[in-house]
Write a structure and sequence with these properties.
This protein is α/β, with parallel strands linked by helices. The protein contains 28 helices and 17 strands. The structure holds adenosine-5'-diphosphate (ADP) and zinc ion. Zinc ion is lined by residues 380-382, 395-396, 399, 401-402.
């Protein structure tokens, strides 16, 4: 488009023309200005916050090439492809290139023919590469995933520590370090190790407002999961986390038998299969990945519409990171977890049986308790999550608790009955057996142990299994009950006042109708009518065709957010198309007509 535009601010101009966006988000503008004018920056922003533009735009505004250090090869390739789609001169240097390919790129760098160059850290530190940098004009250094310098974190990369030489060798080149890791200790470590003492620090809220958090009580997890997907995520891309490889395989097979495009991913698969599944997930439009936590690092697919946990994650940190892979594009997304007492038992066992030293176990127990507090929450889940990262907030209105506050009831008597059943049966049995006693089921095991003779036998007939199991979980969550190393429930000190009748116990009522709770989870894209649904499908098909033609992921043509705008605004000219968010100059030229034709054809049929 050549229409003269009155945008004096050069950063806004690049934002508009190259990326197709009209306004900066949050602190983006301030970060861009800091780096454009030659200052250093440390940027802490959640996943999906928009970190990339913070270095891409200053790199375009300054003379020379922006050097981006990134630890993950797959991610580099994706980012470079996406930048080329936007019409930029971007490339990467890593071990996947042949010697000839690499030297071609090196020549481009020295010849000042690149806007952005992504480099693996070990390569950047090599004498050869340092030499090249000496001969080139460098706009800035961006250090992505900067938490990799932290020796205490899970993504430690020794090469990252040596990146401080960049400052010594190129003191006049601004540096920008970026991470989505929230904690203060890591932040300090980044400053120290990368010598960023002079850097301005930009801290954003770690809230992900577009993610809706929901925890359901495990009843029949497969059925619950299937209902969740069918109701809310038909045809959407999503990730389902399971604890074991076996469960990953079984769940993926079963979902496929139910007609869902599901693929397994875990460390036990051949490297080739893993890579293929990952590519199909990233490129595809609506693939569901069933995975262990081995999957996820370095996936920056923006249109993952849901993350589901069939097993309890390791900690709230892990949960935040895993669920954070949903909704990078800011469109409504779901974080859904099915949870039951058995999960808790399993996690406790894993901690107790590990070879780790006692002080490590203590930390792990505390982390598990925090997770339990979240799972059993009676108040806003987002508040609990953010508070864990040191952020205070109001109830969010976008989690299951806010949307349908749980009912509570005075459960003093049933709680006492449960404690009594546990005590009298010798503090050795798991929840299922205790519930059998309370409800009065004369199973073989009950009879064999003589538990039908105990006074609490059948005392709790009027209460459902689900409510009993929820009550037991709440007693565990409140520290009244513990779990021994064999998964048996035991009484803890804190239950004494309750047993003696000196204290009441208020419990959450179990949600008997699971579908009702689920129904509150909105669909990601709302269709006003069947007609809209038809156009949506046609737009997606057009995107799929273009993506296949060029062998790039579908989202790189246009993101869901842009497609949704086409659906809502129905642009009938290229000018109107250019108004949409995500349509920059290059994409308008390359794809504008194709989508315009889809829309025009659809409108003519109406
Ligand atoms: P991060 O690296 O922080 O996880 P990204 O840089 O990948 O996030 O950005 C997430 C998504 O948000 C991308 O799809 C990006 O194009 C989009 N985005 C970033 N900044 C803006 C903006 N100012 N306006 C609209 N969309 C934006
Ligand atoms: Zn809430």
């Amino acid at each position: 488009m050549n229409a003269p535009e009155v945008t004096p601010d050069p950063a806004l101009r690049v934002l508009r023309h190259t990326f197709g966006y009209t306004a900066f988000r949050g602190q983006q503008a301030a970060v861009v200005e800091q780096v454009r004018t030659g200052g250093d920056a440390l940027v802490l922003m959640p996943t999906g916050g928009g970190k990339s533009l913070c270095f891409q735009i200053p790199a375009l505004l300054r003379e020379g090439c922006g050097i981006v250090v990134s630890p993950l090869i797959a991610l580099m390739q994706d980012q470079v492809q996406a930048l080329r789609q936007a019409g930029l001169r971007a490339a990467y240097l890593n071990s996947t290139l042949s010697a000839e390919e690499a030297s071609a790129i090196e020549r481009q760098l020295v010849g000042d023919e690149l806007d952005l160059l992504y480099v693996a850290p070990e390569r950047l530190l090599s004498a050869r590469c340092q030499n090249l940098l000496d001969q080139s004009r460098i706009a800035l250094f961006a250090i992505d995933e900067a938490h990799c310098v932290s020796q205490w974190g899970h993504d430690f990369r020794p090469e990252y520590i040596q990146l401080s030489v960049l400052h010594e060798r190129f003191p006049q080149v601004p540096r920008i370090a970026l991470t989505a890791t929230a904690d203060i200790a890591t932040r300090q470590e980044i400053v120290e190790r990368l010598a960023l003492h002079e850097a301005r620090v930009f801290v954003s809220s770690f809230d992900r407002p577009n993610i809706r958090y929901t925890v359901v009580e495990k009843d029949n997890p497969r059925k619950q999961l299937l209902r969740f997907i069918r109701t809310h995520h038909d045809g959407d891309a999503g990730i389902i986390y399971c604890l074991s490889r076996k469960k990953v395989e079984e769940t993926a097979n079963w979902l496929r038998s139910e007609g869902i495009q599901a693929l397994p991913y875990h460390a036990g698969l051949e490297a080739e299969t893993r890579a293929e599944h990952q590519t199909r997930f990233v490129r595809g439009d609506g693939v569901v990945m069933v995975a262990t936590v081995a999957f996820g690092m370095g996936i920056d697919k923006p249109d993952v519409r849901f993350v589901a946990h069939l097993d309890l994650p390791k900690s709230l940190e892990a949960y935040y990171q895993e669920t954070g892979r949903a909704g990078r594009d800011s469109l409504p997304s779901n974080a859904w977890m099915a949870y039951g007492l058995q999960d808790l038992v399993l996690q406790r066992e894993m901690i107790e049986q590990s070879q780790a030293p006692e002080e490590v176990k203590r930390v792990e127990r505390r982390k598990l308790d925090a997770l339990l507090g979240y799972s059993e929450a009676a108040t806003c889940r987002r508040q609990i999550l953010l508070r864990y990262f040191g952020e205070e907030s109001e109830p969010c209105g976008n989690c299951d608790i806010c949307l349908a506050p749980p009912q509570t009831f005075d459960a003093t008597v049933p709680a006492q009955q449960a404690l009594s059943a546990i005590y009298r049966s010798g503090q050795r049995y798991g929840a299922a057996h205790i519930i059998d006693i309370l409800i009065g089921r004369a199973t073989a095991k009950i009879i064999e142990r003589g538990h039908n003779q105990l006074s609490p036998f059948g005392i709790g007939k009027g209460i459902s299994d689900a409510q009993w199991s929820s009550l037991l979980r709440q007693l565990v969550a409140q520290g009244m009950l513990g779990i021994n190393e064999f998964g048996g429930l035991i009484l803890l000190e804190a239950c004494r006042p309750l047993l003696r009748g000196e204290q009441n116990f208020t419990a959450r009522q179990v949600r008997e109708a699971a579908p009702r709770a689920a129904a509150s989870v909105r669909r990601e894209i709302e269709f006003a009518s069947d007609e809209a649904r038809t156009l949506w499908a046609a737009l997606r098909q057009c995107r799929r065709d273009l993506a296949e033609e060029q062998n790039v992921p579908a989202y790189m043509i246009f993101g869901d957010a842009t497609l949704k705008q086409m659906l809502d605004h129905r642009p009938m000219s290229l000018e109107a198309m250019y108004e949409l968010s995500g349509v920059g100059d290059r994409k308008l030229d390359a794809y504008g007509m194709a989508f315009l034709e889809v829309i025009q054809k659809h409108q003519r049929r109406l």
